Amino acid sequence: MILTQSFIRNHRTFTNPQTITVRGLMLHSVGVPQPRAQVFIDRWNNPAASVSVHGFVEAGGRAIQILPWTNRAWHCGGAGNNTHIGIEMTEPASIRYTGSGANFVDNDPAATRAFVHDTYQTAVLLFAQLCGEFRLNPLGDGVIISHSEGHRRGIASNHADVEHLWNRHGLSMAQFRRDVAAAVGGGGQSGGEASEEITATLFRVTTQSSPLNVRVSPGSTAPVVGTFARSTLVTATRRSGDWLHVTDGRLTGWASAQFLTEAVPLAVDALVQAGIINTPDHWLEHYRDLPHLDRLLVVLSELNFSRGSVDNVETAIGLLNRAGAINSPGYWRDNHAAVPFLDQLLIRAAGAL
Q: What phi-psi label fits residue 216: left (phi over 0), alpha (psi between -120 and 50 degrees) or beta?
């Protein structure tokens, strides 16, 4: 499974969010023969759109997150919006709905079956990852439910998904919950160490030679969803014992903290060695005070320095932008005074290019 992000930044559930305490996960199906999530993302990425979900599952092992998981979305038309993350599964182009209900004609049964089973397996991995992240028991009552099950519980509107599509292919929500529980393994159910949120921190993958396994939940027996190459820069947002929940913007999951090293201290040390900064304690104390300052320090530490002279921060920002060290010069022009000596850091770094 490859999990990417494509946030609907113009939707009210992103621009003016209410937050929820996640108690469960609700699975939906889009209800039209449309295999591409981007069609819905484009439609919902505007202030007038009424509905929203947290993410999509496509064929090919792809999952797309479109809202922060703890933002309240409007995905089920009932109280489940206040407790459940909503995930939509796209549907194969090989079916055609008849009338206004859940009945459809299957024009290519083999293609439909392949698509449904493909998205099912990806949904298993995504739900296992979310159970691991939010410490949910996949087999707990009401934790993982479909939209139709939500309706029967009185917390969702009257829809038939996802069973209307799954029933024809030997799939069920009961089996789905068992498969998610098996994917979570020992790391995602009650009895393991609880995870806690941490201030987003950059880490560098420091394996010796082999890539770092990324798992659906914090535990060495949990299924692997991908790998990070050595030296990959990732962001960690949660910790569970000796495991960190990390992402590089493409792949998200749990990885062993044994093979992850905080990137900012390494960057500060490199900048000291290059003569760019001479007060490392100051930067280690203040790098969290301004968004993106941690990544700026890391990127600056990777530049090839020589000799030069720059006497003002405006020129420095322009030079660093042209060198590829920063890609949002306006942000740094507006915020370089927010942290003491940040202007001097920019000037020194640009002058040493």
A: alpha
The H or E element that residue 284 is part of is helix 280-286
pLDDT in the model for residue 216: 74
Residue with tokens 């029967």: 152
Can you say how many angstroms the Cα of residue 172 is from the centroid of all Cα atoms in its chain?
A: 27
Dist CA 249 CA 246 (whole Å): 9
Alpha carbons 165 and 155: distance in angstroms, whole number: 21
Q: How far apart are CA 61 and CA 194, in angstroms?
A: 28
Half-sphere exposure of 326 (CA within 13 A, CB side): 21
E strand or H helix at 116, and its extent? helix 109-134
Whether 18 and 71 have beta carbons less than 8 Å apart is answered as yes
Mean pLDDT score of the chain: 88
Question: Which among 41-50, 174-183, 282-291 has the top mean pLDDT?
Answer: 41-50
Q: Where are the alpha helices (DSSP H) in 287-352?
A: 293-301, 313-322, 329-335, 342-351
Phi, psi angle pair for 275, to nearest 5°: 80, 15
How much is the pLDDT for 291? 84
What percent of the chain is helix, strand and coil (3-state, nearest 5)?
35, 20, 40
Q: What is the pLDDT of residue 166?
A: 94
Two tokens at 61? 């092992």
**Contact present, 96 and 33 (Cβ < 8 Å):** yes
Residue 190 pLDDT > 80: no
Query: What's the predicted TM-score (pTM) here?
Result: 0.62
Sign of the dihedral through C-alpha 131, 133, 134, 135: positive
For residue 224, whether the previous peptide bond is cis, meaning omega lies within 30 degrees of 0, is: no
| Cβ burial, residue 60 (10 Å; 0-12/13-18/19+) | exposed
- Best CA proximity match to 90, nearest among 120, 69, 54, 49: 120
Contact 217, 262 (CB under 8 A): no
Q: How far apart, in whole angstroms, are the C-alpha atoms of residue 262 and residue 204?
A: 6
Q: Quick check: 276 and 342 in contact, CB under 8 A?
A: no
